[in-house]
């Protein structure tokens, strides 16, 4: 006897029909049975990143959790990569200067170096995602000016030790908080240890784009900035609401947007939100820095959403959702959590998961409309896998599940059910 679909399953089916399809931009794997770039897949049926809802904006706030906004007055940009470009400019970097980057990275971390003509040098990370200071010391030369340190997936690096190292070595320190809008070390917010810090609020709040630059030590008011055209802001506002409606939030606005949205696609659909890159070529390679957008400020609607969001409540919900996913993957075959326990003061960006046979499993997750991302899938061409075996392995075996505040517990349960199915042998 066939079991009738549940109310949640019926809602998911209607949502899938509304969302439609997109094309996979995953890096092609090896072997005849591995799906290739460009195949048609369903749009994920739960939001990969936060979406707008009345509860998510007007909900009561929770106990205070430090964030990069506590570091200083931020300079809002349209994306984190443009904030990195401005930080390098503020540091006075010139063509030929070297910048130390982790060998496990995304294009958003190295593309901004072209803004000042700097050269990337890549250093190792350890199995626990901490940076290898000994390798960094070996790679320093007279041309090395800046060290970029990333808090992967919200996991804080040992910033007091890194700060001391940079002081001793005469290096400028850029703290990459793209995965760590929230978090602290001994009461000091992440982002307060570096000369400059960047963050990516679009990863943490229901806005389409957004980055920021902040500094506890330097003024930012001399950096160039330009307002976006009002038409761009209006389009972003429309697409923010449309995305929420398509994911079953703000249902009262669905009739109003129905006619206007006919024939339109989600603003996030042309972008590969699951691979860690915003722009990919047909071959799957990153395209490069859009230099015309460096210095553009965040639109007023997105600034309003950021100001209204109950940030502490959002951080606590992320912690709760992370714990649900951590409990849910226990005992599943062929996978393990990259972060088996969050340290005190950490707030997750996503739930990173190691999967032994990711080429096969990721394609199945895409086909089942599971919301996923792959950070570091496309490493810089100059990176030799032997330089950082950990980074090379994570590039091929790590996937991220969402744990953001907009998720409903039924959506998390559905993600875990389909993950278990995808992990089963073919």
Report on this structure.
By secondary structure, this protein is α/β, with parallel strands linked by helices. The chain has a domain at 10-61 and 310-423: Alpha-Beta Complex (Aspartate Aminotransferase, domain 1), CATH 3.90.1150. The protein is built from 13 helices and 14 strands. The protein has helices at residues 7-19, 54-58, 80-90, 107-110, 133-139, 159-169, 230-246, 254-261, 300-308, 311-328, 358-367, 389-397, 409-423, and strands at 21-23, 40-42, 75-77, 98-102, 119-123, 144-150, 172-177, 184-185, 188-189, 196-199, 211-214, 335-337, 350-355, 398-402. It has a seven-stranded mixed β-sheet, with helices on both faces. β6, α6 and β7 form a beta-alpha-beta unit. α10 runs parallel beside α13 (409-423). The two termini are 25 Å apart.
Q: Which value, in Å, is the CA radius of gyration?
A: 21 Å
Low-confidence stretches: 263-285
- The first-level CATH class of the domain at 10-61 and 310-423 is given as Alpha Beta
End-to-end distance: 25 Å
- Secondary-structure element pattern, one letter each: HEEHEHEHEHEHEEEEEHHHHEEHHEH
Strand residue percentage: 5-15%
The profile of the biggest β sheet is: 7 strands, mixed
In total, the number of strands is 14
Short summary:
The chain has helices at residues 7-19, 54-58, 80-90, 107-110, 133-139, 159-169, 230-246, 254-261, 300-308, 311-328, 358-367, 389-397, 409-423; strands at residues 21-23, 40-42, 75-77, 98-102, 119-123, 144-150, 172-177, 184-185, 188-189, 196-199, 211-214, 335-337, 350-355, 398-402. It is α/β, with parallel strands linked by helices and 426 residues long.
């Amino acid at each position: 006897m066939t079991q009738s679909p549940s109310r949640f399953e019926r809602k998911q089916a209607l949502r899938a029909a509304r969302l439609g399809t997109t094309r996979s931009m995953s890096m092609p794997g090896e072997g005849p049975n591995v799906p290739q770039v460009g195949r048609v897949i369903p749009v994920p049926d739960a939001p990969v990143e936060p979406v707008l809802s009345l509860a998510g904006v007007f909900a009561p706030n929770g106990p205070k959790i430090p964030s990069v906004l506590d570091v200083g007055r931020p300079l809002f940009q349209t994306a984190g990569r443009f904030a990195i470009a401005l930080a390098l400019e503020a540091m006075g970097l010139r063509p030929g200067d070297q910048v130390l980057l982790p060998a496990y990275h995304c294009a958003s971390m190295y593309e901004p170096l072209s803004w000042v003509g700097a050269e990337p040098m890549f250093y190792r990370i350890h199995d626990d995602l901490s940076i290898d200071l000994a390798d960094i010391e070996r790679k320093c030369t007279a041309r090395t000016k800046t060290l970029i340190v990333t808090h992967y997936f919200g996991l804080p690096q040992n910033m007091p030790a890194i700060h001391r190292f940079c002081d001793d070595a005469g290096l400028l320190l850029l703290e990459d908080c793209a995965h760590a809008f929230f978090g602290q070390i001994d009461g000091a917010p992440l982002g307060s240890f570096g000369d400059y810090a960047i963050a990516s609020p679009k990863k943490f709040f229901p806005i389409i784009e957004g980055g920021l630059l902040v500094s506890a030590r330097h003024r930012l008011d001399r950096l160039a900035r330009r307002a976006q055209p009002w038409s761009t802001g209006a389009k972003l506002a429309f697409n923010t609401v449309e995305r929420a409606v398509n994911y079953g939030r703000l249902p009262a606005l669905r009739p109003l947007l129905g006619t206007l949205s006919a024939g339109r696609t989600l603003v996030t659909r042309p972008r590969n939100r699951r691979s860690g890159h915003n722009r990919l070529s047909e071959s799957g390679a990153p395209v490069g820095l859009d230099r015309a957008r460096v210095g553009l400020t965040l639109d007023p609607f997105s600034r309003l959403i950021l100001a209204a969001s109950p940030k502490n409540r959002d951080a606590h919900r992320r912690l709760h959702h992370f714990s649900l996913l951590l409990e849910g993957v226990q005992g599943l075959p062929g996978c393990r959590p990259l972060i088996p326990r969050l340290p005190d003061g950490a707030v997750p960006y996503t739930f990173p998961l190691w999967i032994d046979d990711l080429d096969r499993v990721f394609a199945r997750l895409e086909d089942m409309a599971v919301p996923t991302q792959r950070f570091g899938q496309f490493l810089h061409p100059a990176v030799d896998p032997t330089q950082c075996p950990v980074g090379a392995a994570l590039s091929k075996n790590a996937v991220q599940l969402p744990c953001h505040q907009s998720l409903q517990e039924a959506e998390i349960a559905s993600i875990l059910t389909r993950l278990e199915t995808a992990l089963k042998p073919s």
